[in-house]
Design goal:
Blueprint: H1 2-34, H2 41-63, H3 68-95
Helix pairs in contact: 1-2, 1-3, 2-3
């Protein structure tokens, strides 16, 4: 029971960080890549932190499946950003002489 309580506390803190910091930054990144921009080094570092954290919290989400939809939706946003950014980077690379 104590583990579940600890999990809920950790997941609550992660959800708050997501709402306050990561989701707003992700929305700005999505807007930029949707306009054809490529990711900066800072953007890439941010996404790397997000993916590292996602791997780290996977066991918590497995033990608390009510958080699975939130985790899946968040990762879908980041997947969309990286896929679009890759297309933008490839397009930029092919335009160079």
């Amino acid at each position: 029971m104590a583990e579940i309580s600890k999990d809920i506390g950790v997941l609550t803190a992660i959800a708050e960080r997501m709402v306050q910091w990561r989701l707003p930054r992700a929305q700005k990144l999505k807007e930029r890549v949707d306009q054809g921009e490529v990711l900066t080094d800072s953007d890439i570092a941010f996404l790397q932190r997000v993916f590292r954290d996602a791997v780290a919290i996977a066991p918590l989400v497995e033990r608390n499946p009510q958080y699975r939809p939130l985790a899946v939706n968040a990762m879908a946003i980041y997947r969309d950003i990286t896929a679009k950014a890759l297309k933008n980077q490839e397009a930029k690379s092919t335009r160079r002489p």
